[in-house]
Specification:
Its main location: membrane. With 297 residues, the chain is an all-alpha fold. Helix content is 75%, strand content 0%.
């Protein structure tokens, strides 16, 4: 079971969740003012790779890679690049909180990939969570179009592409987590992150060239969005690798899964995005279920 968190550790985890949620709100602000997904992914990943790479150097992190690491890291980088592209594509098409809620089904994807690739039987808690998580997601997304009054067909015409991107991000992230655990889990997290983010940045940069170059903001709010999404993402990762280890927090904590809740509030304040009460209920079910899963042994 998760260890008892100190007040400082708890506050730090909430801060990281807040910054990650704010990062996606800033991304939507940038997308609404001319920035495209590849430009956002390139800047976010490149700056994060640089910042964490500096940490690797300053903290004298061992940088020796085994042949297994050299095989695994490019695949992980490719998966995270695809996940980043798909999640930001979902954020560009859906209310930010709903995109993150759909993405937060990744614990189910993780269990599925672990079963398919390594023969791990899903835990009983995961099996119990599956229908609850999917029910909450269905309510949050208003899949029948009842809250919007559009009906199922019109509602899916409006959200279908965004949901597809978010679920693809969930599936690829689940695969990346399983692959990382089994093929690169013994590698220092700082080195693994710097390498992965560097690969993501290079892949996104190469794709930018095929799309006619960067798509810059067309108005001042877009520049704020691009700058903030880059700073918030890089800062959150820096805190994760510098502050949390000193506070005794090992690995990821379920508390950080409140990110969609922060995104919901920030998107309402800064983007004017609001969802119906039944969708709020669904969001609460999703977040609560994911936190419950994260607290398992």
């Amino acid at each position: 079971m998760s260890t008892r968190l100190s007040p400082a550790a708890f506050a730090t985890l909430l801060l990281i969740a807040l910054m990650m949620g704010a990062n996606h709100v800033a991304a939507r602000l940038a997308f609404d003012h001319g920035v495209d997904v590849l430009t956002a992914v390139t800047f976010r990943s490149g700056v994060t790779a640089l910042v964490v790479g500096v940490l690797v150097f300053l903290q004298a992190v061992p940088r020796t890679l085994t042949p297994r690491h050299r095989r695994a890291l490019p695949a992980i980088g490719l998966l995270i690049a695809l996940q980043s592209f798909c999640l930001y594509s979902a954020v560009a098409r859906l209310p930010v909180a709903l995109a993150l809620l759909a993405f937060n089904t990744y614990p189910l994807s993780t269990a599925l990939w672990a079963r398919l690739l390594y023969g791990h039987r899903p835990e009983r808690r995961v099996l119990l969570a599956m229908p609850v998580l999917l029910l909450g997601l269905a309510l949050a997304l208003d899949v029948l179009g009842a809250a919007s009054g559009l009906g199922a067909a019109a509602q899916w015409g409006r959200i279908g592409a965004g949901v597809a991107f978010a679920l693809t991000a969930s599936i690829t992230f689940g695969l990346a987590l399983v692959w990382t655990q089994h093929e690169a889990g013994d590698l220092d997290g700082r080195l693994r992150t710097a390498t992965t983010m560097g690969l993501v940045g290079l892949l996104a940069l190469s794709a930018v060239g095929t799309q006619g170059g960067f798509h810059w903001p067309q108005a001042t709010p877009g520049w704020w969005g691009l700058g903030l999404l880059t700073v918030l993402y890089g800062t959150a990762f820096t805190i994760m690798f510098t502050v949390l280890p000193r506070l005794g927090v090992v690995g990821n904590s379920a508390i950080m899964n409140v990110e969609p809740v922060f995104a919901l509030g920030l998107a309402w304040v800064f983007l004017g995005q609001a969802i119906a009460p039944v969708q709020l209920l669904g969001a609460g079910i999703v977040v609560g279920t994911v936190i419950w899963l994260g607290l398992r042994r």
